[in-house]
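Regression test case RT-17, inverse folding.

Input:
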């Protein structure tokens, strides 16, 4: 996926003031429909509307990121985790955006348009929707 990650404005402050701890907090990725209109001004999950329904292999609140790592090498800090995968079961999962957030306080980090056309992404029973992070991490600070 060649999608671009778009940071919410509040994320820049919450990592700076320690509200979000990239080392110890739990992060989740939720899916939304095309009815959600992302805004850089959104701050918490209560601002995110039209989450994908709790059905067909998707659970409300999204998927917890596994193997989250915050590391630094030669002056570049990297935030990374395993790719996130949903398998449709008994019906289709249809989404337009993925929203990354810190579930310790419901603080938003970033959103991703899943298909830059833009168009909905639909996976049918037995197929997977995978958010594959960039090989150099979800994001880096250099």
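Golden output:
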């Amino acid at each position: 996926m060649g999608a671009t990650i778009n940071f919410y404005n509040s994320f820049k402050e919450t990592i700076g003031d320690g509200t979000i701890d990239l080392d110890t907090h739990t992060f989740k990725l939720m899916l939304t429909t095309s009815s959600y209109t992302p805004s850089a001004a959104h701050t918490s999950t209560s601002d995110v509307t039209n989450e994908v329904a709790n059905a067909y292999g998707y659970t409300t609140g999204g998927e917890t990121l596994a193997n989250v790592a915050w590391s630094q090498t030669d002056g570049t800090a990297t935030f990374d985790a395993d790719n996130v995968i949903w398998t449709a079961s008994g019906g289709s999962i249809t989404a337009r955006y993925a929203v990354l957030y810190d579930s310790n306080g419901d603080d938003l980090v970033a959103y991703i348009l899943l298909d830059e056309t833009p168009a909905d992404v639909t996976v049918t029973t037995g197929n997977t929707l995978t958010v594959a992070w960039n090989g150099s991490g979800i994001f880096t600070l250099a």
